[in-house]
Design goal:
By secondary structure, this protein is an alpha/beta fold. Helix content is 34%, strand content 30%. The chain has a single domain, classed as 3-Layer(aba) Sandwich (Rossmann fold), CATH 3.40.50.300. The chain has seven helices and ten strands. The strands form two sheets. The chain has a six-stranded mixed beta sheet with strand order 6-7-8-3-9-10, with helices on both faces. The protein has a four-stranded antiparallel beta sheet with strand order 2-1-4-5, with helices on one face. β4 and β5 form a beta hairpin. The structure holds adenosine-5'-triphosphate (ATP) and magnesium ion. Adenosine-5'-triphosphate binds next to β1, β2 and α1.
Length: 220
């Protein structure tokens, strides 16, 4: 489904160049629950942003279903981010002035058609149907992350990226989000998750460790 070939990323800092990714190769298949682990600053978020089309690599390619993302223009890349993949971040990134339901439906509006039935199904699925008219400020962290997961799924993406989805939650709440993600994976949703929580990662079918700019296979 997704392939990274010799991916490199350099940042131009005030104190010279930072060579963060130095030739990352990976392949993600349909149905995978893939984890990327690694120390803080290893480049995990950087890698996820390249795979998700949020940023462009310095060298190397990302292919989604055989299509090279670097050949897409901004409009096609925006479509890729909106329709084919979904994103869940550590700090949820819900829009504070919108209700839970409006947040969940927003990517479908952007794609051209508000999906009210699917948002209902998803809100029930993540246990937030009763809270659909609430604002972000009225939700706990775990509830906000559930809303963000529903939002990531609204356009039926083939692949969902999560960057430290439970990094900001207490253990018990994190555990309930882990369960939700694994349940969705069992139902067929493909995930690529960045985490520093090894106990979470161990349950995935594939684990990669990002270290010194390259990935080592930990599992598979
Ligand atoms: N836009 C940027 N410009 C310059 N340097 C950057 C930029 N973004 C990230 N970096 C640097 O790249 C390195 C990798 O950052 P990244 O956020 O990918 O790490 P990470 O593995 O996700 O870390 P964490 O576990 O703390 O989230 C860091 O040293 C960071 O300072
Ligand atoms: Mg990060």
């Amino acid at each position: 489904m997704l392939r990274a070939i010799a991916l490199e990323k350099e940042y131009e800092g005030p104190r010279g160049k930072l060579h963060i990714l130095r030739g990352v190769n990976l392949e993600l298949n349909k149905g995978d629950m893939m984890f990327i682990i690694g120390r803080s600053g290893a480049g995990k978020s950087t890698l996820l942003h390249l795979l998700g089309g949020l940023d462009r690599p310095t060298a190397g390619t990302v292919e989604f279903r055989g299509e090279d993302l670097s050949l897409l223009n901004e409009e096609s890349l925006a479509k890729y981010r909106n329709k084919r993949v979904g994103f869940v971040f550590q700090f949820y990134h819900l829009l504070p002035e919108l209700t839970v339901r409006e947040n969940v439906e927003l990517p479908s509006l952007i794609a051209g058609k508000r999906r009210t039935k699917r948002s209902e199904d998803l809100l029930k699925r993540v246990g937030l149907w009763e809270r659909r008219d609430h604002l972000q400020s009225e939700l706990s962290g775990g509830e906000q992350q559930r809303a963000a997961i529903a939002r990531a799924l609204i356009n039926e993406p083939e692949l969902v990226f999560c960057d430290e989805p439970t990094g900001n939650l207490d253990d018990e709440t994190a555990e309930s989000i882990h369960r939700l993600i694994f349940d969705l994976n069992r139902e067929g949703q493909t995930f690529c998750v960045v985490t520093h929580e090894e106990s979470f990662a161990r349950k995935g079918n594939r684990i990669l460790r990002l270290h010194e700019g390259v990935v080592d296979v930990v599992k598979h």
